Amino acid sequence: MNDRYFRPVKVLLPSEEVARLISDAIRSGDFPVGSRLPSERRLAEKMEVSRPTVREAVRILVEQGVLAVKPGSGGGIFVASEDVPFDIIVDMPQMRPGEIDDALEMRRLILPWVVQIASRYAGDDDFERMRSAIVFGRASLPPEGEKISAQAVNLVIIATMRFDLAMAEATRNVLVRQLMDQLLHWVEPLRHRTLHTREDLELSLDLTNEMLEAIELADAERIDRITERRLSILETALEQHTGRRMRRHRR
Predict the structure, then answer these.
(1) Does residue 122 have a pLDDT over 80?
(2) pTM for the predicted model, two decimal places
(3) Which residues are in the HTH gntR-type domain (predicted)?
């Protein structure tokens, strides 16, 4: 019997799904700290849910320290923190080594194409989003000599995620943007297990900065070289973490 279609089902409450969508918007950089979200009524209309559902979603994120609600004429729903874990709403299922292997193979197929297309189509707004992601990541690093916190790791991961999403946006292909978002969610647990030191975090940001420079110059050879480095780092980390070689390295 072929059972690949039958997987564990996780059903979110409407309020949890709304909270997840708001979290994703913050993680993606659309709403930085201090920015005001659309009104409760506007959010309800956009997501086609009731206002009490939105109110409950906001309450969940206020309890998590992500949002703050200010009353009065100048009040509203404001972003209090961009340190939003990807599994803040619901525990993500643990991917088996083979599934992570699949995700990284898919990343190897998609990322080189995305970078090359972004180098052709990216405009000033795209480059600004990429630069902003790197600046955000640099600002998340603690001072020299201080211990690397889980928060710093999470924020640097968010920064590189924003950079990759900005590249995907630059392809002008909505489906590519959605696929990149899904890929980043798949590999994020591995990144949390492999980024431990300041050197790890700085290397991650340095490579995104080198990739930005290569895209701006439309230097295909340099783009290929840096893309391979970014791909290899996670693939090597997977092999070290699991003690097994990826399929592509066994052939």
Answers:
(1) yes
(2) 0.91
(3) 12-82
